[in-house]
Design a protein that fits this description.
The complex is a heterodimer of chains A (326) and B (283). With 326 residues, chain A is mostly helical. In chain A, 75% of the residues lie in helices and 2% in strands. Chain A has one domain (3-244). Chain B has a two-stranded antiparallel sheet with strand order 1-2. The chains are: A mainly alpha (326), B mainly alpha (283).
Chain lengths: 326, 283
């Protein structure tokens, strides 16, 4: 995709966000959409790992929850201003992600997924038990200061403003990732993903790029965690639980991970669908379980894949374009 | 204190052996990591609970694994067999979807609150073991686990079908060219693996309470075991299950605050040393 096309798409996305923020007056709808956008950021992190490394993480809630806990603990102890706390927490997540990545991406195939599940659960148990620092299973509230980056909290937390903030972050992340992935880094990681041995033969070091993708996906997930901490002002071990990782993975697969924006679409569909289900929401696990199985079996590229196929058929573009879109 | 903990570690280790041999068998034949294995364990425990409530614990001990075996055969025939040419990731996600469906089913049928199954009368007494009183029922659990481990090892090593299973785990195509019906064999093995999950569920029901969260705890420990032991390796899983049980037991005495973390620390240490587990080969 050319740079002009990218900037045009970004601009269009920002305009759509502004239109939603200005026209939707219902606070509940906006807060539902805000939640969906926050999880869209989370899902993009998980989807990046799957798209670029071909690895499935069942433990990314670790980074989502860690962002909230990091900021919550720093603010509780009064170590530094909130703005710095956000930056330090995200930097720490990226560094920890890189260190974990260097160890765990070496584990072959599906054992990687089982490992991420176990590591995530380890932190869930730790956070549930460390009552002194994290409030244990009850969770902790995050003491945001009255102004953040010079904007007063009451303005920031107004539903339309918070929605717009999350939307801008989401669009920004997709743009930055798209730019990064069309650089040499994107080609290297794709080469390693498709055939690690051949990539090694042509002189690419294979461990570091994969660990870097893992760290990047942890960082993106962490950004989602920061937004969630801002939205709810509260963090509990639920945010670290494997079921959250699994739910996000479901959004990624249903949305389609081959396109960068697919997981975000999956998150929005998930939240809208869950809201429509209403009274049946008690059975959401079975409903989403069946939906997940159906999508994987019949449309492995998800909603995004189906949409792209539809568009290419519509434009009657040569087959080559359809292939390069992957 | 240490004796009773080591004893409980042994009990938990044998339970994990029964769980993990099912996981390893299914992985061996179908190259599927079954994320729903913990949910099948839970379903087995709840079925056992209902059968025991209407009949007797000893009936449940046979009925629940039999029902689970039937579920396993169906799962293989209409699930794994149809998906055998798909990317392994796809099948893992299908089993994850299945996990959600089973969890919902169990919560709908039996509710979300904790249930407990009484220890059968015949084993409801204490035994003196090296100066410590231990429940006889738990000794029974160890006996069942040891019988499963020994029986499976002998069956795989010496019987004709055991030979087929080992051959098909190594190379399914060549095995079927030699005239073995690998689809029927896989259905049987997945049935057996699922029955073992059900057996572990019924056996654990009298000493661990039944709740919808029971599946998550056990599947995570089982994954730690099979990852440490090497995917698909039965011997690796047996050793890793015992090591895990013992590490938790000793940890509970000497490092009570960190005992839940020890299995994970152990796993990370082993994976740094050998990324494919102790008995695993790189696949």
């Amino acid at each position: 995709m050319s740079i002009q096309r990218m900037s045009l798409n970004t601009l269009a996305a920002l305009v759509i966000g502004a239109v939603i923020a200005l026209t939707v007056s219902s606070g509940t709808v906006l807060s539902l959409l805000t939640q969906a956008i926050i999880y869209a950021v989370f899902a993009i992190g998980v989807g990046l790992l799957l798209r670029q490394n071909g690895m499935v993480s069942f433990g990314h809630a670790l980074y989502f929850g860690a962002a909230g806990y990091g900021i919550g603990i720093i603010l509780q102890l009064g170590l530094m201003p909130a703005e710095l706390a956000i930056v330090v927490t995200l930097a720490a997540i990226a560094i920890v992600g890189l260190l974990f990545g260097l160890v765990i991406v070496r584990v072959p195939g599906i054992a990687f997924g089982m490992l991420t599940l176990a590591i995530g659960q380890m932190f869930f148990l730790t956070a549930s038990r460390a009552r002194g620092l994290t409030g244990g299973a009850d969770g902790m509230s995050i003491d945001w200061p009255s102004t953040l980056f010079g904007i007063s909290q009451s303005v920031l937390l107004r539903p339309a403003n918070l929605f717009m903030l999350c939307w801008i972050v989401l669009v920004g992340i997709i743009l930055l990732l798209a730019l990064l992935l069309r650089s040499r880094f994107g080609s290297i990681t794709e080469a390693v993903r498709d055939n690690e041995e051949r990539a090694r033969f042509i002189g690419i070091s294979t461990l570091l790029p994969r660990a870097a993708v893992y760290a990047l996906s942890a960082l993106v997930t962490g950004v989602g965690g920061v937004l969630s901490a801002l939205n709810t002002g509260f963090i509990s071990p639920e945010s670290l639980h494997w079921s959250l990782s699994g739910m996000t993975l479901m959004m990624v697969v249903v949305g389609g991970y081959k396109a960068l924006w697919g997981p975000a679409l999956g998150a929005v569909v998930y939240f809208l669908f869950k809201d429509i289900l209403g009274d049946y929401a008690d059975h959401w696990m079975a409903i989403f379980g069946i939906a997940l199985i159906t999508v994987i079996v019949f449309s492995p590229t998800g909603i995004a894949g189906a949409l792209q196929k539809l568009r290419f058929r519509h434009q009657a573009t040569p087959a080559k374009a359809a292939v390069s879109s992957h | 204190m240490l004796t009773i903990n080591l004893f409980n570690g042994l009990v938990y280790g044998t339970l994990l052996i029964v769980m993990c041999s099912g996981l390893a068998l299914i992985y061996g034949l179908r190259r599927v990591v079954n994320f729903a294995h913990g949910s099948l364990y839970m379903l087995g425990a709840y079925i056992g609970y209902s059968v025991a409530a209407h009949a007797d614990f000893w009936v449940a001990l046979f009925v629940a694994p039999a029902v689970m075996a039937a579920i396993g055969v169906v799962l293989d025939r209409y699930g794994f067999r149809l998906l055998q040419d798909r990317d392994p990731l796809t099948v893992v996600l299908v089993t994850f979807g299945l996990l959600l469906v089973i969890e919902d089913f169990v919560q709908t049928v039996w509710g979300k609150s904790n249930l407990s199954l009484a220890t059968p009368d015949a084993l409801n007494f204490a035994v003196n073991l090296f100066g410590t009183q231990v429940p006889a029922y738990r000794i029974g659990v160890i006996v069942v686990g040891a019988a499963v481990a020994l029986g499976l090892s002998l069956w795989l090593r010496f019987s004709r079908y055991g030979l087929f299973v080992r051959a098909a785990s190594t190379d399914p195509t060549t095995t079927s060219m030699q005239g073995v019906n690998t689809d029927a064999l896989s259905a049987g093995v997945v049935g057996l693996g699922t029955a073992l999950a059900g057996l572990a569920g019924v056996v654990s029901a009298p000493f661990m309470s039944l709740s919808p969260s029971m599946s998550a705890d056990v599947i995570i420990d089982s994954f730690v075991v099979v990852v440490i032991g090497g995917l698909g390796s039965l011997a690796g899983a047996f050793i890793a299950a015992m090591v895990l049980g013992m590490v938790q037991a000793v940890g509970a005495v000497y490092l009570p605050d960190a005992s839940v973390l020890l299995p994970f620390v152990l796993m990370v240490a082993i994976l740094i040393w050998r990324p494919a587990g102790f008995a695993g080969s790189r696949t």
